[in-house]
Structure formats: structure tokens, C-alpha cells
Amino acid sequence: FGYSIAMNEKGTRLAVSAPAKNKSAGQVKVFDINSSISQSSFTQVGQSIYGDAIDYAGLNIDLSADGLRLAIAAPYNDKGGVNAGQIRLFHLQDEKSSQSTPHRREWVLVAEILGQNNNEAIGSNISLHLSTSKSGLLVMFSVGSDNFSESSTQRVYALATSTGTDSNSNATQIGWDIPSPYIPSDSSTTMSGEGNRIAIASNVANTIEPGSVQVFDYDV
């Protein structure tokens, strides 16, 4: 528990993963942080989210700035191919209480992204980022993180709906794969808050192949 963590912009909501939970199926929980001068407490938000057997769901996770959207990587999911990987996008559905029904909050699956080839293990590197742009929700993740890869790429997907609350939403790749000449463990990435600029760093500890940082803009 605590392998990967993510927090919303205000620091009031925290997502925590346990990818080895339930025989490596993986588990993710989200908590609201209730702070006071004397102490802090944590209240779980919505249900616990699980992966399938040996998926390692939650190896990497991210929360959107508003804390209403959650991305969970399961790098060893086999839906798209052997160890192709999977990234699921969830939206927090908040049903207000009434006289007849209690207040209920639930994480609803709105989109699923699958690896395109065997052993891509998408999302296994630390570079899993969510961002909300003017055109909707964006997610960036690493590709090619299995032990046999000598290089990696980054992919960016956009949710088809502007709000990302429709359970029938489709996530579509925008732009081409962005290659990095180095293995994923030596790469680091970041995405701007509006999702229109990303940076990819490739760190190499020698003078023959010096490291580099590339910055890309995209008109979203």
C-alpha cells in the first residue's frame, strides 16, 4: 500500500495504490483529507478499485487537478495483447442525498486505453499524467517499458467528451507516438496544466550519449 500516490491541486484529495494486492491484481483507494489545527483524518471517497489477476493495477496512478478524474495503469493487462497493458479513466459520480436516498459517491469507468502490441506494458513507467484542456481530458503515458525494450515512446490520448462523465466516452490518440532513444527507466516526463505542452527528459550518465530534454507543443 502506497506504491503510487497522486493528489489534487488543492491538496484535499489523495489517491493511493497497492499494485500487489489480491495476488497482484492491484487496488486503488481515494481519500479526502480532513485537516484541522490539532489533527488530520482521512475519509475514503467512493469504492475501492481493483484490477484483474496479475495486472498490477495501480503501478502508476494520477488524479486530475479538480480531483474528479482518476487514471489507473495496469501494465500487465492482456486485453490488447500479452502484457500490452491498460489504462482506465474514472470519473467521480456524486449523487446528492435526499429524503429517500443517502449521499453516494462512486468512481465510474468512462474510458479504457489498451496497449497496441505485446509487451508494451503501457503506464509502467512513472510518466502517467492527467490534464484538463479546453477540449477535454488528456492522459499521457509511457510505452515500451518491458525488460526487453531499448527505447521508449510517449502517447497522448484525449477523451471524446468535454466533461469526461459519459460512461460511453472514447479515448482517442492525438498526434503521433513521441519516441525517446533511451530506456524508460532513464526517462522522465511532465505535462502542462492545460495539456498543450509536454516535456520529455532522457537522462544518460555518460559523455558519449549526453542526456536531453525535448519540449513539444500541441494545439488542443
Automatic annotation (TrEMBL):
Domain of life: Eukaryota
Stored InterPro entries: Integrin_alpha_N, Quino_amine_DH_bsu
Signal peptide, first to last residue: none
SUPFAM superfamilies linked: YVTN repeat-like/Quinoprotein amine dehydrogenase
PANTHER family to which the protein is assigned, alphabetical: GAMMA TUBULIN COMPLEX COMPONENT C-TERMINAL DOMAIN-CONTAINING PROTEIN, UNNAMED PRODUCT
Full protein name: Uncharacterized protein
